[in-house]
């Protein structure tokens, strides 16, 4: 494969990315010269100690944040410094995000939380409801659809969050410690769902502290002090 073909195939291409935060008069180098190329369909885990830049990297890939310097190409489009509204539009079409703390809207039911991205995207209500119902069935939430988040278990909340993150059929799913607030069984359910989505062709990037989860991915990136310390392709034996 020549170099041009490889560039064409990459979904995410980060070149010399730095992300600095100014805290008082001190500059924190959260990301320090990141170079990373990710191909559509990969299943990647990101590990590393607290403060090593994992969330900053995921937020940047997810267009929730922008680099201080460097270049980000997403599906061959330069998205390095898009205005906020274009960032949001690209995110809505392309990227799903799942967080450790679920980030559901407390006063909305499970079904309404899942429906929200469709409403924000202006989808016709006649199309919205079948999509929401399908997602609720797939996430095994049929008898919880009318419950609010405080009436759901952690595992159920995260399944609502995954349904919300995937309702727009994104090609890229980012999960920042999605099992961090869950017991082992619920955590494993969530990982199984993410892996099933990956088998359906969605690129999955998961930040995790859990070595057992990290090793299930087909590629493992370890971060240290804002840098990529190692980037390994793993055998797929564990899947
Ligand atoms: P991790 O997710 O690996 O625990 P983070 O990406 O959250 O690490 O943070 C990396 C570094 O950047 C840390 O030193 C953190 O304190 C700093 N940082 C992250 N976000 C901000 C922010 N909004 N303002 C200032 N410093 C930040
Ligand atoms: Mg983090």
Topology, pairings included?
Elements (H helix, E strand, L loop, with lengths): L2 H7 E14 L2 E14 L3 E5 L6 H8 L7 E6 L2 E2 L5 H11 E5 L10 H11 L4 H14 L15 H13 L5 E5 L7 H16 L3 E5 L3 H4 L4 E6 L2 E7 L6
Helix pairs in contact: 4-5, 4-6, 6-7
The site of magnesium ion has 2 residues, from α2.
Would you write up a description of this structure?
The two termini are 27 Å apart. With 239 residues, this protein is an alpha/beta fold. Strand 9 and strand 10 form a beta hairpin. The protein has a single domain, classed as P-loop containing nucleotide triphosphate hydrolases (Rossmann fold, 3-Layer(aba) Sandwich). Helix 4 crosses helix 5, helix 4 runs parallel beside helix 6 and helix 6 runs parallel beside helix 7. The protein is built from 8 helices and 10 strands. Magnesium ion (MG) binds next to helix 2.
Short précis:
By secondary structure, this protein is of the alpha/beta class. It has eight helices and ten strands. Helices cover 35% and strands 29% of the residues.
Tell me the strand order in the biggest sheet.
6-7-8-3-9-10
CATH homology superfamily = P-loop containing nucleotide triphosphate hydrolases
Kindly state the mean pLDDT as a whole number? 94
Largest sheet: 6 strands, mixed
Quote the distance from N terminus to C terminus: 27 Å
CATH topology: Rossmann fold
CATH class reads Alpha Beta
Low-confidence stretches: none
What is the SS-derived class?
alpha/beta
Report the C-alpha radius of gyration, rounded. 18 Å
H/E series: HEEEHEEHEHHHEHEHEE
How many discrete domains?
Answer: 1
Query: How many strands?
Result: 10
Bound small molecules, by name, code or SMILES, are: adenosine-5'-diphosphate, magnesium ion
Strand content: 25-35%
Percentage of residues assigned to helices: 25-40%
- Can you tell me the overall shape? globular
Number of contiguous helices: 8
CATH architecture: 3-Layer(aba) Sandwich
